């Protein structure tokens, strides 16, 4: 079975932008602390693979995920395929020399983790970045595909969260001394200000701040996500959920009523319902109404993220009704 595409979004998480900013700050603090503590501090070669339990999950996974990508392999003793995958991942952890940490979790000894991650079967591999879990792949896979997924994970960890593992030299017991943290760029400071405004509930200020970042960096993924989230939150902040849903039920052809209901669906975690409502609205409408429904659907795609399979499915459904 080939690995599924990674989803850097996972479930709907309107705190994702805040988490990314906090993770970057924690990563910089961790690097500075390792430098102060000297060459004997940090991640040694023997700690690149850990056996996680429910009791050690917070220290082994959540805390470490602010400093280094953590890959979790769920396995079972009677599943030979999962043990073979673990052997491959352990070897890759050594070869990648600290750019990710591998945690193995035996499913029968960790039923709570098994359920929390929504594991459907073993082997199953997940990642945790800045405390956020995401699926990587299910089942066995060729090594070249596994390394491709790992490379993608490491790139996202650095670009979106500022997380870079402390490199372990081959055969060394400790990593090389980390370089001093670099000063924040004006764009990073502007993005941080936007995050702070969003966190403080200043949605208007956050929207303008994210737009300022995008004016200089139109391809900034973090700013696009933050802007989409801030605009969504501003649209629903004064909404009466019961009244909105009743209005949408009473007037299936009322475009604004359906747009408002879709926003509430998404904020409530009903992603497929929100997408389905808008795809159906595009199908049933024409002219300016159709354009309004289509544009709102594209905005909600930004909130979830392009890598999410629900977005891919909705894009396909939208293409069918448009063409």
Automatic annotation (TrEMBL):
The alphabetical list of record keywords is: Redox-active center
Domain called Thioredoxin: residue spans: 43-155
One matching Pfam family is: Thioredoxin
Q: Which domain of life is it from?
A: Bacteria
InterPro entries with a match to the protein in the record: Thioredoxin-like_sf, Thioredoxin_domain, TPR-like_helical_dom_sf
The yes or no answer to whether the keyword Membrane is present is no
Which family does this protein fall into?
Belongs to the thioredoxin family.
User: Could you identify this protein by its name?
Assistant: Tetratricopeptide repeat protein
Organism for this UniProt entry? Actinacidiphila polyblastidii
